[in-house]
Amino acid sequence: QLQLVESGGGLVRPGGSLSLSCAVSGFTFEPGAVGWFRQAPGKERERVACISIPDGTHNIRDSVKGRFAVSRDNAKRTVYLQMNALKPEDTATYFCAAGRDYFHMCVIDSRSPEVWGQGTLVTVSS
């Protein structure tokens, strides 16, 4: 069974950095894409980044562009979210989620991810 486990969350001061990891294990289907999502208390979940597993093509949400970066290491079956210049409004639980293909999940948003991690909390506060 495909499983995703996030790690790397924590408390950081405004302006600081965190690197989140999403470790993929097991096999139900071979993920074609992994997305990073976040949900703050009282707010809707939003996708912040998405990456194609085969070729690394990716997109980043406009509100975090220039501060967040997504990458993957296929040998380790791990996807990363590097977050720099963090702001209090970045505070949220961050989830990674896998889907079958990048175009439908990350470009035209026609298919939701099929497998989700449990989330990791990021708190940006002084």
Could you explain the architecture of this structure?
By secondary structure, this protein is mainly beta. The chain is 5% helix and 48% strand. The protein has one helix and eleven strands. Strands 2, 4, 5, 6, 9, 10 and 11 form a seven-stranded mixed beta sheet that branches. Strands 1-3-8-7 form a four-stranded antiparallel beta sheet, with no helix packed on it. It is globular, with a radius of gyration of 14 Å. The N and C termini lie far apart (40 Å). The model has no long low-confidence stretch (mean pLDDT 95).
Describe the secondary structure blueprint for this structure:
Elements: E1 3-7, E2 10-12, E3 18-25, E4 33-39, E5 46-52, E6 58-60, E7 68-73, E8 78-83, E9 92-99, H1 102-107, E10 115-116, E11 120-124
Parallel strand pairs: 2-11
Antiparallel strand pairs: 1-3, 3-8, 4-5, 4-9, 5-6, 7-8, 9-10, 9-11
| C-alpha-based Rg, rounded | 14 Å
Per DSSP E runs of 2 or more residues, the count of β-strands stands at 11
Write down the overall mean pLDDT. 95
Q: Poorly predicted ranges (pLDDT <50, ≥5 residues)?
A: none
**Which structural class is indicated by helix and strand composition?**
mainly beta
Biggest sheet record: 7 strands, mixed
Number of helices: 1
Q: Helicity range of the residues? A: under 10%
- The arrangement of helices and strands along the chain is EEEEEEEEEHEE
Shape: globular
Ends apart, CA distance between termini: 40 Å
